[in-house]
Every structure is written in C-alpha cells, then in structure tokens.
Amino acid sequence: xxKHSKLIPSMIxxxxxxxxxxxxxxxxxxxxFVKKGFHKTTTREIARECGLSIGTMYEYIQSKEDVxxxxxxxxxxxxxxxxxxxxxxxxSGIDSLRKGLKQLFKVMGEMRTSVLLIYQETKSLPKxxxxxxxxxxxxxxxxxxxxLEKGMKDGTLNMNPSSVKLMxxxxxxxGQMWTFRHWALGRYYDLEEYTERQMALLLGEFTSGGxxxxxxxxxx
Length: 220
What we know:
This protein has ten helices and two strands, in the order ααααααααααββ. The protein is an all-alpha fold. Strands 1-2 form a two-stranded antiparallel sheet. Helix 5 (93-110) runs antiparallel to helix 7 and helix 7 crosses helix 8 (164-180). The protein starts with 14 loop residues before the first helix and ends with a strand. Residues 209-220 have low confidence and may be disordered.
C-alpha cells in the first residue's frame, strides 16, 4: 500500500500513522461492504465502524471510492504476499506449483467474502484506480506463469510454451471458483476436498507420461 499511496493524497505527513489509520479504515470498510455493499455504505458509517471521527477519516482519504481502492489493494497485496511466501527458489517447478496451488485455495477459502467483494465492486472505482487494481490481478497471475516456466525449464512440468499465460489464468479462475461458486460447490465439498480434487485435475495436465497418485503427484 505504501508504494501506491500517492494515488490517495493525505493531509498527514507521518507515513507510519497513515499506514496505521488506513488499515483501521480498511478493516472497518471490509466488514461494512461485505454486509451492506459498497453503494449502501456511507462514509460516516465507515468512520464509526473503524473508530474514527468523520473529520479524522478525511485526513487520510478523500472519498468513499478511495476507501474501496484501499480495500482492493490490501486484499490483492495480501494474496500476492502469501503466494510468494509459499514457494522457494530451491523448489522444483512442480513442487512450487503444488505449494502455490495449495496456498491459493487456502487463501481463497479464508478470504472468500473479501475476494468476492473486489469483483462485485471494482467497477465503482475511478479509471486510474481500476487500472491499478486490474494490474495487480495480472501481477498475481504472473506468479503462476513464472512457476510454470520454471517447471518447463527443469523438466518437471510438461506443457506447450504458448499455453503458459492461458494456464496461469486458468489456475487463478479455478482458485476463484471457490469464491464465485461456493453457493453450489459448498454443498458437495469442503475446502480440503475441493483442493485435493482440483490439484489432481490441474497437475494431471502437466505430468502426462508419468504415473500419478490420487492427488496428482508423480510416483516412481
């Protein structure tokens, strides 16, 4: 959030305090946006929810759309951080893919309502902030592009190089499916079973020619 705080000017000069107060605003806004939706939530309600006066809150943001941008940026940054944290340079491509997939499904389970919020409300952002949010989505997808390319290079993943970008987007959509289709899938699977079945299907696409167990792992 610090890197792009220039998109939202603040009257306060203390960067540490800006980060602290904006996190308060984000936490309160997420609760309200999930419960009431962006358009039905007022800035006064956000201020009350995060424990600030309306005047104090406007020292850190200029509009309700600024709050939505902060929320979207925070959710994307959290997802990106946790995905990158789950993989290591020392891992093979397929091991990185397994770890990345597990983390993606885990985070989608934990942040399901927040991720759904982004996709429901992003259209309400001003053009410049919407462009940034969409760029963040592409940057997260690129994590899986790099993992797939690594696996092709070290020989642990088998796929057509021209399909890397498409498959990375497919992975993100399958992760987000737990968010968008939970109303239906949640009746048949818990998150653990959903993760196992989706990983088996996805890993099966990359390991043709090898023997795989029920979780899509290569066996000797």
